[in-house]
Each structure stands twice: as C-alpha cells, then as structure tokens.
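task queued by scheduler; priority normal; single chain, no ligands, no partner chains; default sampling; output format set to structure tokens
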Amino acid sequence: MDEGKRKKITAVPASSGFAWVVQSLELLRAQASRLLFIALLMQIILGLVQVPLLGILVVLSIPGLSAGILEAFHVAGKGARPGMHLLFLPLASGNRRGRLFALGALIFAIGIVCISLFIGNTMSGVDEAQLMRLQQGDMEVLYEIDPLFITRLMTAFMLSVAIGGTITFFAIPLIWFRNGR
C-alpha cells in the first residue's frame, strides 16, 4: 500500500464510542419493526439448513445475508425505510456476490477442519442412529455417547465459531462497503 494512501488511525475518547452505541440503539428504535422483520426473514431462511442440498447453499450464502442486514441498517441510518429486498441485495449484486460466497465457503471449510482435527478417531463409539437422534433434538442420547466425544465436539464447535465469527465480523463489512458504498 502506498504511504500516501494509508489512512491514519486516530484515537477517540470513550464518550464517542458510547455515543455511537446510543445512536445505534436509536436507529434500531426508529425502524424497529422493519429491521426486526428483515432479521426474522433471515432466521426463517437459516432454518432451511436442515434441507439436505439446499442447506449447503444456505450456509454458503450466510455472509451475503449478513451483508444484507448491514445494508438495511445503513439505509435506515440515512433516514430511509429499509425494504425486504435489501436482505438479498448482496446476493444479487454481481460484483461482490462471488466474494461473499467464497467467504461462506471458507467458513464452511474452517468448520470441517475443526471437526476433523478434534473429533478424529473418537467417532468409533458413536453410531449413525445416535447421531440422527441428536440431530433431531433428542437430548437423552447425550447420556449414551462417550463424554470424550461430546467434549471434543463442543471444543471443535467453539473453535470454529470463534475463528469463523472473527473472520466474518471484519470481512463482511470490508467486502460489502468497499469503495464508499
């Protein structure tokens, strides 16, 4: 990066950060029903993860849907009324759609690598019927599964969420709001 293009980081007082939080809560209060309805629509779409082939597409599109929620807040911050179409705008936008899907693929791969590293050969004591019952919400099956497997599964889950969450927290706004959007 050229030294002339590098932006200088400026320190601001804590009161500025607190004022920013207050402004964001005022923004949410001003457009609460629309913004919450957009978030509810995203949650309904995320429920489609349970559908076998469609689920993978939903997982890959999570960064795009998250950028859509950011866009809705951006529009609300300008004083306009955010519409439902804003949730899907990043997925329909040709110039950034590929990057957002690639980010979804990266997060998916991080999850697979974390599961592979931590679970490894501890799957030998767990059969497919137990996994199906667990996926369907039967919590009684947890008493039948080896505690080491559960511990490693939770560790892999927490690590993949921490790594993937950190990456997406910074990458989604950088991809979507690049070039002064």
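post-processing summary
- The helical segments are 14-30, 32-46, 52-77, 85-92, 94-119, 128-135, 147-176.
- The chain has a mean pLDDT of 87.
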